[in-house]
Amino acid sequence: VLLLEKYRVIRRPKDERNFHILYYLMEGADDNLRQELYLNKLGKNDYISPLEDTSDKKFASGSWQRIINACSVLGITKEEIKTLWSVLASVIHLGAAGAVKGQNNAKAQFKDPSEAQKVASLLGVTVEDLVRNIFSPKVGGTPTRGLVLRSSEQDAEGAVEALEGMMVGLYTEAVNALVSLINRALSSTNRTSNSIFIVDIPGFQSPEDCGRKSGASFRDLCDNYANERMFSLYNDHTFTSQQDKYAQENISFDFESSDDIPPDAIIDLIETARPEVEENKLNRSESIIILSCVLFQ
Fold first, then answer.
1. Is residue 244 part of a domain?
2. What is the per-residue pLDDT across 37-84, written as a single tens digit (0 to 9) for each?
3. What share of the chain is helix, strand, coil (3-state, %, to 5)?
4. Is residue 22 located within the same domain as residue 151?
5. What Å distances lie between residue 181 and 79, 124, 186, 249, 294, CA to CA?
6. Residues spanned by the domain of 268
7. Could you tell me if 92 and 234 lie in one domain?
8. Is 282 helix (H, G, I), strand (E, B) or coil?
9. With contact defined as beta carbons under 8 Å apart, do 275 and 297 qualify?
10. Cβ within 8 Å of residue 131, ≥6 positions away
């Protein structure tokens, strides 16, 4: 599974929802499960809001039952599925916990400590470990020699980014775990290899639609590039290849052209090497050489 849209957990276009499974869990879980996952009373959440429309709630409950049935068919045990639900519930509660910059140069902390306590309980860690791993993560070596990835203690924005990174990471791990469970159910002793490749397309990213005032990020560029490539593949298989077959068989047809810019034109802007850039790379970017490139190319 190529989960290109994993950041929808923390950022999504205006008037769009988060991942469906989160709403299915909030609306479809029975009373016992809701109590175990602390979903009986949800706090204010800037990332995931409960459904309000009656028809949406009914659809979510029905979808939840289909998911439970599918897990049963795949032979996923109650303990395994409970672990998945705990991770997803942790994502929900992290959104409600929030993050703020500590006062008087103190360390970053959760806005709602009670929600953080729920997350720690679901993940089987202490609140102190949760705070340390989110706001002061280290990699490699001993705790005293580890490398701090990002100092979220410097500003409020850094604290929020650290929290969002944990939310994205937890959701991604839940998806990976589910894929492993499905592969286990479909595995065979025969020496054959079959695979299904699923791509979750993120959709074209626009900072304004996501409520961001800053410009597009490098991640937005990568997402939009992936969309252009997928759209180009779809266009080739759906239209271009069919036109070629009709032409080979001398079949006449009416093709309505579009004024939209073809995807290949956008892709070429990114992939095609530019001579003027190469001049700079080769350290031959004297003003006369660059001027000659502009005038004669």
1. yes
2. 999 988 889 898 888 899 999 999 999 999 999 999 999 999 999 999
3. 55, 5, 40
4. yes
5. 12, 21, 9, 47, 58
6. 230-296
7. no
8. coil
9. yes
10. 107, 109, 110, 116
